[in-house]
């Protein structure tokens, strides 16, 4: 029962830091989650069909389940919650557990980014501190920083969209870089044929629907594609910049200097990385913090700071900022949020 | 009989003829009984071999549960089947017939869509404009899912199809399809076009063996190789 005592201690710290218990539903409408998170979620969910023929699932993740609960309550104010419970999911790895104990905190509707990012990390550190005296190390990254870099580079919009959208999927991201390097995006032969068809289609009735899309829609996108620089020769240079950015890995104290160095070496505008105060703020923790650009790339919904906390070699907690998740779960406006969860098994 | 070998062959069409030819060339002459539609056959001078004609999909199921020892069926069907079934079956040899590609196809007139990356952008478009997801009609849900997700397309919904999938985009049942094609004629005739990086799987007929039986069948398999 050691772990029970442990989680009680952690919960106590959560409470004393102003976090309130949230008890999200165990059963969720799986179509609702798939609608919003995509078909790839389906495989990891444990589902069954209820008597109305609706496919339900056991909550695959407590962050997502807590967000759904938050949206159902329709409160507009900021909500500081903690949860302690089980999440259920399948992985492709053989022998991995279906049931995961999750213990974590979230600040939903977090507008004061600087303060709330710090609050979450600090609360997690405080709750872990009571447990062990092992050396605490923090690894941190910032997805926002990568987006800023991409937006500052001179390349077609469609490429910017692809690279930022797939940052969290490293393998496919690498494929994209290879394609960008070789500029194998538009090939001239079929392109000319399609251009001919483009002019034919211009004469058609513009609201004709072809497999769900209107002619206007298709032509508009085609037009946008040709107006984007066609023979895009800068690809190689841009890929080199991106690759060298993803190699930055340094002590937090050296980050300013490293980024400046990177910007100068690649002739980029000086002010592209101006806002990463949330990261620099972590100096206040007085802990060993390492900044890694190539980090936090395994979960789709992170948008800003991402971190993992280690006690010795074991990861004891992880979290980050996810400003778009609530909107993708159905909120009308974007509701910024930040949170973290403790890995009880490693404490 | 202890050393009985049961072989499953496709029950219809070109695949059946080619499979019979293949055995023939290896010196195993298939003898059809006098009832034309009988599902059982034998091999000349080999009383320990039994031939059963089955649906190509069925051959994989029966290899999995041990009813069949050896079978000829499509790679696409094997790869589409459940993972634990696949683990019970070994591909002994790819055969030079039944070649076909599983591909992603879009309407010809979607001239702005040439690659999977285009498709993904359109999927996001559809999602944000109409709050629905791109519908993909297919007979191969597993392979399609794995492929699309690995290529970064997530905003879609599978529509399962039993046949004539090529019609789906034009009758409002889906926007795009994935399907098996060998010459590409059916696709072209139905105003569909394969995406440049839209090859999901290169398939052909394969000689498959139940893993459990591999060691017992060692000598027999040498005969076939």
Describe the structure.
The complex is a heterodimer of chains A (347) and B (225). Chain A is an alpha+beta fold and 347 residues long. Chain A has three domains: 110 residues, Bira Bifunctional Protein, Domain 2 (BirA Bifunctional Protein, domain 2), CATH 3.30.930; 138 residues, BirA Bifunctional Protein, domain 2, CATH 3.30.930; 40 residues. Chain A contains 13 helices and 14 strands. Chain A has a nine-stranded mixed beta sheet, sandwiched between helices. In chain A, strands 2-4-3 form a three-stranded antiparallel beta sheet. In chain A, a hairpin with a 5-residue loop joins strand 3 and strand 4. In chain A, helix 1 runs antiparallel to helix 4 and helix 7 runs antiparallel to helix 10. The radius of gyration of chain A is 23 Å and the shape is globular. The model of chain A has no long low-confidence stretch (mean pLDDT 86). Chain B is of the alpha/beta class and 225 residues long. Chain B folds into two domains: 116 residues, Periplasmic binding protein-like II (D-Maltodextrin-Binding Protein, domain 2, 3-Layer(aba) Sandwich); 104 residues, Periplasmic binding protein-like II (D-Maltodextrin-Binding Protein, domain 2), CATH 3.40.190. A seven-stranded mixed beta sheet of chain B has the order 2-3-4-1-5-12-6, sandwiched between helices. In chain B, strands 9-8-10-7-11 form a five-stranded mixed beta sheet. The model of chain B has no long low-confidence stretch (mean pLDDT 92). The chains are: A alpha+beta (347), B alpha/beta (225).
């Amino acid at each position: 029962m050691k772990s029970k005592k442990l989680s009680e201690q952690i919960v106590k710290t959560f409470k004393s830091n102003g976090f309130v218990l949230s008890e999200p539903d165990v059963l969720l409408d799986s179509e609702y989650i798939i609608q919003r998170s995509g078909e790839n979620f389906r495989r990891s969910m444990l589902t069954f069909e209820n008597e109305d023929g609706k496919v339900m699932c056991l909550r695959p993740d407590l962050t997502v389940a807590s967000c759904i609960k938050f949206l159902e309550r329709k409160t507009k104010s900021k909500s500081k919650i903690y949860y302690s419970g089980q999440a259920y999911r399948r992985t492709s790895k053989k022998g991995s557990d279906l049931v995961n104990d999750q213990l974590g905190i979230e600040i939903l509707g977090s507008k004061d980014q600087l303060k709330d990012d710090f609050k979450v990390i600090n609360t997690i550190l405080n709750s872990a501190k009571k447990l062990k005296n092992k050396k605490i190390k923090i690894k941190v990254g910032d997805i926002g920083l990568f987006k800023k870099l991409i937006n500052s580079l001179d390349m077609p919009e469609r490429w910017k969209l692809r690279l930022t959208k797939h940052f969290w999927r490293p393998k496919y991201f690498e494929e994209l870089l290879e394609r960008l390097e070789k500029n194998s995006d538009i090939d001239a032969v079929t392109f000319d044929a399609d251009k001919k068809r483009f002019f034919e289609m211009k004469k058609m009735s513009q609201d004709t629907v072809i497999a769900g899309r209107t002619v206007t829609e298709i032509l508009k996108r085609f037009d946008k594609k040709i107006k984007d620089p066609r023979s895009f020769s800068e690809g190689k240079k841009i890929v080199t910049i991106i690759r060298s950015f993803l190699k930055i890995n340094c002590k937090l104290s050296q980050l300013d200097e490293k980024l400046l160095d990177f910007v100068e070496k690649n002739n980029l505008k000086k002010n592209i990385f101006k806002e990463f105060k949330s990261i620099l703020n972590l100096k206040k923790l007085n802990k060993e913090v390492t900044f890694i650009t190539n980090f936090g790339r395994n979960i789709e919904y992170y948008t800003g700071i991402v971190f993992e906390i280690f006690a010795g070699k074991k990861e004891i907690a992880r979290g980050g900022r996810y400003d778009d998740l609530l909107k993708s779960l159905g909120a009308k406006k974007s509701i910024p949020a930040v949170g973290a969860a403790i890995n009880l098994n490693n404490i | 009989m202890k050393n009985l070998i049961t072989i499953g062959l496709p029950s219809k069409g070109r695949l059946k003829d080619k499979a019979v030819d293949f055995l023939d060339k290896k010196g195993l002459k298939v003898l059809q009984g006098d009832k034309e539609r009988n599902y059982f056959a034998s091999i000349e001078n080999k009383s320990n071999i039994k031939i059963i004609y089955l649906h190509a999909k069925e051959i994989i199921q029966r290899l999995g549960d041990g009813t069949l020892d050896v079978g000829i069926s499509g790679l696409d069907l094997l790869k589409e089947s459940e993972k634990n079934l696949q683990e019970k079956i070994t591909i002994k040899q790819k055969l030079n017939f039944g070649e076909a590609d599983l591909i992603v196809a879009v309407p010809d007139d979607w001239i702005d869509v040439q690659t999977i990356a285009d498709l993904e952008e359109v999927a996001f478009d559809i999602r944000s404009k109409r709050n629905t997801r791109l519908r993909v009609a297919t007979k191969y849900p597993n392979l399609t899912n794995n492929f699309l997700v690995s290529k970064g397309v997530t905003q879609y919904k599978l529509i399962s199809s039993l046949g004539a999938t090529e019609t789906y985009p034009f009758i409002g049942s889906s926007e795009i399809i994935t399907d098996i094609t060998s010459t590409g004629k059916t696709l072209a005739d139905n105003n569909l076009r394969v995406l440049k990086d839209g090859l999901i799987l290169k398939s052909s007929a394969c000689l498959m063996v139940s893993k459990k039986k591999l060691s017992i069948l060692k000598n027999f398999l040498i005969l076939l190789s």
